[in-house]
């Protein structure tokens, strides 16, 4: 049974402007393992897409759970990739649910959708 659906979209320029100033947004949004992967990218464009995609995924997840970011922090939600490269999501305190995640990028935006099943 579907328990929730969430979607979020973010402008890549917004992420670009933020990381031009500092890495504070990345450190706030990304978990330690996500930060390791983020630091691995030499290409600045790929870093922006990665951070924007994770930001959108975590916002979409919080919307699907009905909590929003605030009650649930970015650090409680982790987005990793399986062996084929597909993203998956793990949420601390919600291990009983199955999360389905899709992230996409265009030239200007990153979008993510999360569906939760119990």
Would you count the extended β strands for me?
A: 5
Q: Which descriptor suits the 3D outline?
A: globular
Structural class by SSE content? alpha+beta
The stretches of 5 or more residues where confidence is low (pLDDT under 50) are none
Cofactor: Mg(2+)
InterPro entries: 4-PPantetheinyl_Trfase_dom, 4-PPantetheinyl_Trfase_dom_sf, ACPS, Ppantetheine-prot_Trfase_dom
GO molecular function: holo-[acyl-carrier-protein] synthase activity
Catalytic activity: apo-[ACP] + CoA = holo-[ACP] + adenosine 3',5'-bisphosphate + H(+)
List the helices and strands and how they pair.
Blueprint: E1 2-11, H1 12-21, H2 24-29, H3 32-40, H4 44-65, E2 77-81, E3 87-91, E4 98-105, E5 109-117
Give a verbal description of the structure.
- By secondary structure, the protein is of the alpha+beta class.
- It contains four helices and five strands, in the order βααααββββ.
- The strands form two sheets. It has a three-stranded antiparallel beta sheet.
- It is globular, with a radius of gyration of 13 Å.
- It starts with a strand and ends with a strand.
For the structure shown, list the relevant keywords.
alpha+beta; 3-stranded antiparallel β-sheet; 40% helix
Quick summary:
The protein has 118 residues and is an alpha+beta fold. It has four helices and five strands. Belongs to the P-Pant transferase superfamily. AcpS family.
């Amino acid at each position: 049974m579907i328990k929730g659906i969430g979607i979020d979209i973010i402008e890549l320029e917004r992420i670009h402007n933020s990381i031009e100033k500092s890495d504070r947004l990345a450190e706030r949004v990304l978990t330690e393992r996500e930060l390791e992967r983020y630091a691995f990218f030499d290409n600045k464009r790929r870093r922006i897409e990665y951070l924007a995609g994770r930001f959108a995924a975590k916002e979409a997840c919080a919307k699907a759970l009905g909590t929003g970011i605030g009650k649930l922090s970015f650090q409680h939600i982790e987005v990793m990739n399986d062996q084929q490269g597909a993203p998956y999501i793990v949420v601390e305190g919600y291990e009983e649910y199955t999360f389905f995640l899709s992230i996409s990028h265009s030239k200007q935006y990153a979008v993510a959708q999360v569906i939760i099943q119990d």
